[in-house]
């Protein structure tokens, strides 16, 4: 990300621009020089959350879906280190993908697809998790991290335009001590010191500061000339190949002037020499003005990108004001709804709602999906009916005046999607007895009727209206798990009962255990499994709706299924098996609904003294029988959905048991 080649240039070709700093000393100096007389305001460090994900996720296991409690422990240590040093943290996350950066976004997503393919190739060849060289972030980690940091009491923001711009603006406006990230755009902004998260040593509280002043000195440029340098080199707004001819001319001229110069870094030196050698006028830079009109317009747009509020461009360009996003859905919505959606989005309190309501464009980045496995439906497709009904709550499904109803454009990454164009999706009305769910009532209503409307609307999104009798039995998070797993079971043909059992157990079994307890859990079976979840790709999509991954340990292993010893919410491996026969949904629906609800109801009360005959019940939703347990407590399905009833619901899908799991493994 950022300016093409600039990070490498500073680290390898111009190391004097990289200065080792101590955060504690830097904070002390910042207070002395900027906050004299203030006894309450702490020095503030702005953190680019997207750039920090790889640093934060230092957990050893990742291919199964991620270690949530271990990840939370890492976040607590990160926050605690800066708190101890007397430094206030403010986190920013990307909330939108601006259309001028769409091409670069697509390019990166396709590149990550190739990285994911290499991961699956390694898994199939070696049967174990690859090393850190093939590391891919667990699916949905950026989304979950926002809520994780908020749960730790941290100030967290989600951008409504390019996050780099909002970070630099916030840092300048609030006189912050620095920006922690890994994006050379912050050097070009030059609002406050840019600090490297890749070089961060949390034990010593040190990192590398990339000095804008030293870079300008080395290149003999003014700070005001850095945006032009960035655009000529190429960035997210100006494609690198767009200015290739100008760079080639500049490089040829530089070599004629400096025939003995080393080749390393000469491209950046050449472009800097081109800028400093050509006088600037109101008509623009000599050389730049010779570019085709379209190239000049792209260059001007790129320079505008770096202009923070109150800053002036190097020369007069057509429009120096930052472009605010245009609300395409304004005519369909009330101002109150739009404002509430924007505020919730900025405070990182919701996900994707603002994007739908503002311009009708949503994105879903890469997930761990095997593009060579044609049997499993991509999670983006599995959840499309859900999303269509959610869009039907947020937007009108028809227009009273005979006009065209709004649509939503989806940029969802999944195997087989070349991302040439977005998929256009129409909102669907909910099919439930309560009638049209008014968004204003759902958001702002406070009476008991509104509460019932919220519950019925939530269930209608998954077409689980009959599940309303269960909502008082379970808390919100368990209710979400139950609805989502049931939805998956209805949608995914290849999902097995063991998949359902294992996911429900994962949602519960570590709920009452601390990170330290899990760290010292001993396992009867400790070998990693290599296959991604059968249906686990759907789980990754489900997590986007429900919330963070639950950590998964190898609590149970049976024929055809393995629960990852260090996996996450999707840490399962399922061997291929015959598809269930037709009519599966009708036979499975009600036993699954009520049986899963009973299991969750019992599991959330681990002290419940239940007596279960060995071998007679599927216990703990982990698939084990014969006296096995979760958290030391055997938990049966109810009579209406016991193992016999589940067997009747799916007669061609035999219930299999195992005695491989020890009581130690359960806890």
UniProtKB/TrEMBL annotation:
Spell out the CDD domains in the cross-references: PIN_FAM120B-like
Q: What is this protein called?
A: Family with sequence similarity 120 member B
Family statement drawn from the similarity comment of this UniProt entry: Belongs to the constitutive coactivator of PPAR-gamma family.
Sorted alphabetically, the Gene Ontology cellular component annotations on this record are: nucleus
- Entries under SUPFAM superfamilies matching the protein: PIN domain-like
Q: Where on the tree of life does the source sit, at the highest rank?
A: Eukaryota
Q: Which organism is it from?
A: Hucho hucho (huchen)
Higher taxonomy: Eukaryota, Metazoa, Chordata, Craniata, Vertebrata
UniProt xrefs under InterPro entries: Coact_PPARg, PIN-like_dom_sf
Q: Where is this region: Disordered?
A: 642-667
For this UniProt entry, which residues form the secretion signal? none
């Amino acid at each position: 990300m950022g300016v093409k080649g600039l990070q490498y240039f500073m680290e390898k070709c111009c190391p004097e621009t990289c200065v080792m700093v101590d955060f504690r000393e830097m904070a002390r100096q910042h207070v002395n020089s900027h906050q004299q007389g203030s006894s309450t305001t702490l020095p503030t460090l702005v953190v680019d959350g997207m750039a920090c994900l790889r640093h934060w996720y230092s957990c050893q296991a990742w291919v199964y879906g991620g270690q949530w409690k271990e990840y939370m422990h890492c976040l607590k240590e990160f926050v605690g280190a800066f708190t101890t040093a007397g430094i206030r943290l403010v986190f920013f996350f990307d909330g939108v993908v601006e259309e001028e950066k769409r091409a670069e976004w697509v390019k990166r997503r396709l590149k990550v697809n190739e990285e994911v393919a290499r991961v699956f190739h390694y898994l199939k060849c070696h049967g174990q998790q690859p090393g850190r060289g093939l590391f891919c972030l667990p699916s949905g980690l950026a989304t979950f991290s926002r809520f994780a940091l908020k749960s730790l009491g941290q100030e967290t923001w989600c951008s409504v335009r390019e996050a780099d711009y909002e970070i630099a603006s916030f840092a300048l406006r609030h006189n912050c001590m620095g920006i922690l990230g890994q994006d050379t755009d912050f050097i070009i902004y030059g609002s406050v010191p840019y600090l490297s998260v890749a070089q961060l040593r949390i034990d010593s509280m040190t990192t590398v500061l990339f000095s804008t002043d030293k870079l300008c000195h080395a290149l003999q440029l003014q700070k005001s000339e850095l945006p032009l340098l960035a655009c000529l080199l190429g960035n997210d707004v100006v494609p690198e190949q767009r200015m290739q001819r100008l760079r080639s001319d500049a490089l040829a001229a530089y070599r004629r002037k400096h025939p003995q110069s080393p080749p390393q870094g000469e491209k950046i030196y050449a472009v800097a020499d081109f800028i400093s050698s050509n006088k600037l006028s109101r008509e623009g830079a000599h050389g730049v003005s010779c570019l085709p009109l379209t190239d000049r317009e792209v260059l001007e747009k790129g320079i505008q990108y770096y202009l923070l509020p109150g800053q002036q461009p190097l020369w007069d360009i057509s429009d120096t004001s930052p472009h605010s996003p245009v609300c395409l859905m304004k005519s369909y919505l009330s101002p109150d709804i739009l404002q509430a959606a924007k505020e919730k989005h900025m405070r990182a309190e919701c996900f994707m709602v603002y994007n739908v309501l503002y311009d009708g464009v949503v994105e879903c980045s890469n997930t761990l999906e095997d593009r060579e496995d044609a049997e499993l439906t991509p999670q983006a497709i599995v959840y499309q009916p859900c999303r269509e009904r959610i869009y039907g709550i947020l937007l009108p499904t028809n227009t009273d005046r005979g006009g065209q109803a709004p649509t939503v454009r989806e940029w969802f990454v999944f195997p087989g999607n070349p991302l040439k164009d977005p998929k256009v999706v129409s909102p669907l009305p909910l099919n439930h007895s309560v009638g049209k769910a008014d968004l204003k009532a759902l958001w702002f209503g406070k009476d008991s009727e509104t509460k019932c409307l919220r519950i019925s609307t939530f269930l209608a999104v998954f077409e689980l209206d009959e599940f309303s009798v269960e909502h008082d039995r379970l808390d919100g998070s368990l209710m979400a798990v139950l609805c989502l797993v049931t939805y998956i079971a209805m949608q995914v043909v290849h999902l097995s009962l063991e998949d359902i059992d294992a996911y429900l157990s994962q949602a519960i079994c570590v709920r009452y255990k601390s990170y330290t307890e899990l760290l010292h859990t001993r396992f009867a079976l400790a070998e990693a499994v290599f296959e991604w979840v059968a249906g686990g790709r759907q789980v990754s999509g489900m997590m986007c709706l429900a919330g963070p991954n639950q950590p998964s340990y190898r609590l149970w292993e049976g024929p055809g299924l393995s629960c990852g010893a260090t996996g996450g919410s999707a840490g399962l491996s399922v061997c291929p098996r015959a598809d269930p026969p037709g009519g599966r949904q009708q036979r499975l629906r009600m036993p699954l609904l009520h049986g899963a609800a009973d299991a969750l109801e019992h599991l959330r009360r681990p002290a419940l003294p239940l007596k279960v005959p060995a071998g007679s019940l599927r216990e703990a939703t982990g698939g084990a029988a014969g006296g096995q347990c979760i958290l030391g407590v055997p938990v049966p399905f109810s009579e209406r959905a016991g193992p016999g009833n589940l067997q009747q619901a799916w007669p061609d899908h035999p219930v299999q048991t195992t005695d491989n799991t020890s009581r130690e493994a359960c806890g």
